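Backbone Fold Data
Goal — fold tokens
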Amino acid sequence: MRIDPLKDVAATLIKTVLRPTVTGLENVPKEGGFVVASNHLSFFDSVIIQALMPRKVSFFAKAEYFTTPGIKGRFMKAFFTGVGSIPVQRGEQAASVAALDQLVEILDKGDGVGIYPEGTRSRDGLLYRGRTGVGWLALTTGVPVVPVGLIGTDKLQPAGSNRIRLHRFTMHIGEPLHFEHPGAKHPLPMRRKVTDEIVDAIAELSGQERAAGYNQSPSVE
């Protein structure tokens, strides 16, 4: 995929205004498909990862970001399209079979995709148990999984607040994880094991305390 100029603009703004600490950029594969698996603390996490990664990483993004009217809407659509975001309707699960198949298509083209194993952002700072979509993706495609640990991005917009605050943050990028490649038809215990290994790697990078169960969206709590 071609890198859009807006990606570079966003990266420059983030580096200049927020002065993040970023480590491990050399761990991002220089070619071929790869999965970025990150913890999730803030609305801004996808934008940060997409802007600061040396290669394009496609995340799911709300369809409203592509359909908002006016100048702001046109800028949002241009940015999210440029960095490779994939529009998804509100209420659709990013871990659905159809959505994962869409990510497989991108990986098969040799590009990068991003996924949050927790499913939704953590509002209490804990790292929740991973849902197995990321394990399915790794075993089905055989591409490397690059774990990412974000620290402090929750301070940019605290849970329950609409206010944006300028705050430094850290992004640690770990060494790629390689797993077997049995294809889409693999046993569930294998998928669970791979998912747990990926979340363990994220935990080492983020330093978060672990939660015992799965994270839930506020809409279902």
